[in-house]
Amino acid sequence: MTISMYQASVPRLVNSLSNLDKILDKTRAHVEAKKLDEAILVNFRLFPDMFPMSRQVQIACDAAKGVVARLAGAEIPADADTEQTLGDLKARIAKTIAFIEGFTPAQIDGTEDKEIITKRGDKETHYTGIQFLLGHALPNVYFHVTTTYNILRHNGVEIGKRDFLGTP
């Protein structure tokens, strides 16, 4: 049995972002129970040279929509990166999930060898579709979701491995 590019991307990304959304629900409950200022968590960094929690969520969403759009040959929607509250971040996640769920297997399957070129400044990186998905995009999404999880766990939000994994 072979696995399709669609099955390796869209359901996995939706699962990870849905789990992140539920983690933010637990964060909101934690903030309310402890009477905390949610801005402290939204802006918290594990280390001074790392991005804050809000940026971790934004990058996870951008990476998810970016890989699916690139594989499908679609335009990647741009977001303003202005989220400042847990509600804003949850809305960003919901918008991203809706976008990637809008793609069909027919749009994604068969893109294993598709040329994907990313640009960062003047640097171009060339991938095949499968290299980009498995070697760059999925690890990038997981990294930023994990970092968000770690920021929140470090700050006392009662979340565990099951919250991160959800029900794959």
What does this entry look like structurally?
It is a single chain. By secondary structure, this protein is mainly alpha-helical. It has a single domain, classed as Up-down Bundle (Four Helix Bundle (Hemerythrin (Met), subunit A)). The protein has seven helices and two strands, in the order H-H-H-H-H-E-E-H-H. It has a two-stranded antiparallel ribbon with strand order 1-2. Strand 1 and strand 2 form a beta hairpin. Helix 1 runs antiparallel to helix 4 and helix 3 runs antiparallel to helix 6. The longest helix has 30 residues.
Structure keywords:
two-stranded antiparallel ribbon, Four Helix Bundle (Hemerythrin (Met), subunit A), mainly alpha, 168 residues
CATH topology term: Four Helix Bundle (Hemerythrin (Met), subunit A)
**The CATH architecture:** Up-down Bundle
Strand content: 5-15%
Structural class: mainly alpha
Average pLDDT, all residues: 97
Order of helices and strands: HHHHHEEHH
Number of domains: 1
CATH superfamily: dinb family like domain
The rounded Rg comes to 16 Å
Q: Which CATH class applies here?
A: Mainly Alpha
**Extended strand count:** 2
Overall geometry comes to globular
Main beta sheet: 2 strands, antiparallel
